[in-house]
Amino acid sequence: MALLPIITAPDPRLKKKSQPVATVDAELRQLMDDMLETMYAAPGIGLAAPQVGVLKRVIVLDIDREEVKTGRLFMANPEIIEASDEDVSYEEGCLSVPEHYSEVVRPANVTVRYLDRDGKQQDMKCEGLLATCVQHEIDHLDGILFIDHISALKRNMILRKLLKVRKEKERDEAEGKPDRAKDKDKDKDKESAPAI
Ligand SMILES: [Zn+2]
After folding, report:
1. CA angle at residue 147 from 7 to 181, to 5 degrees?
2. In sequence order, what are the beta bridge partners of 127?
3. Closest listed residue to residue 131, CA positions, set 177, 192, 86
4. N or C: which terminus of the chain has fewer CB atoms within 10 Å of its end residue's CB?
5. Dihedrals phi, psi of 134, to nearest 5 degrees
6. Cα separation, 71 vs 63, whole angstroms
7. Which residues are within 8 A (CB) of 189 and not within 5 positions of it... i.e. 6 or more apart?
8. Active-site pick, 27, 86, 137, 191
9. Could you tell me the distance, in angstroms and rounded to a whole number, from the CA of residue 186 to the centre of ligand 1?
10. With contact defined as beta carbons under 8 Å apart, do 108 and 131 qualify?
11. In this structure, which residues have their CB less than 5 angstroms from ion ligand 1?
């Protein structure tokens, strides 16, 4: 297994539509395994292939919370085949939009159809955080980020800040300074919303 570099916004690859996979073969399983390892290391509870620069319709998830424990989930070609009329608002974060969180309104319950790691078709009813997470990840496959669900004003503010952080990091690297993000991680609030 290997850790893959996670792409952060703004990046044109995060805005592209990913292609369906033809079959779940050994090569795709390798990608799934690498994505899962990358997600654990981040750490995050969900990851979509375009977040590691691969434009294939593949997502991985593992939610381990008091209210929901999913175990590891691998989904190829996931699609929402049913969604509740009832909506819910959840504070979302994203590994590709680091350090920013925002309330996003989505259907509270969904049923997702996908091919599992063995290539078998599955239908799964999702509620709570799992429903939010699955919809967030499928959005990635369509080139949509959670910040596309919030006001343009707030979205542009976040994108500007991300660009600023990137420029600072590039300058620090050029000057051989230590990584500022690592210092920040130390006192990061552990209770903040999960990155997906
Ligand atoms: Zn995300």
Report:
1. 45
2. 109
3. 86
4. N
5. -60, -45
6. 7
7. none
8. 137
9. 22
10. yes
11. 94, 196
Q: Could you read off the pLDDT tens digit of each residue along the chain, which spans 196 residues? A: 799 999 999 999 999 999 999 999 999 999 999 999 999 999 999 999 999 999 999 999 999 998 889 999 999 999 999 999 999 999 999 999 999 999 999 999 999 999 999 999 999 999 999 999 999 999 999 999 999 999 999 999 999 999 999 999 999 999 988 776 555 554 454 456 778 8
Q: What is the pTM of this model?
A: 0.91
Whole-angstrom distance, CA of residue 162 vs CA of residue 12: 14
| Ligand 1 centroid from CA 54, angstroms | 14
Q: Assess whether 137 carries a catalytic annotation.
A: yes
> Nearest-5° angle of CA 35, CA 27, CA 31?
5
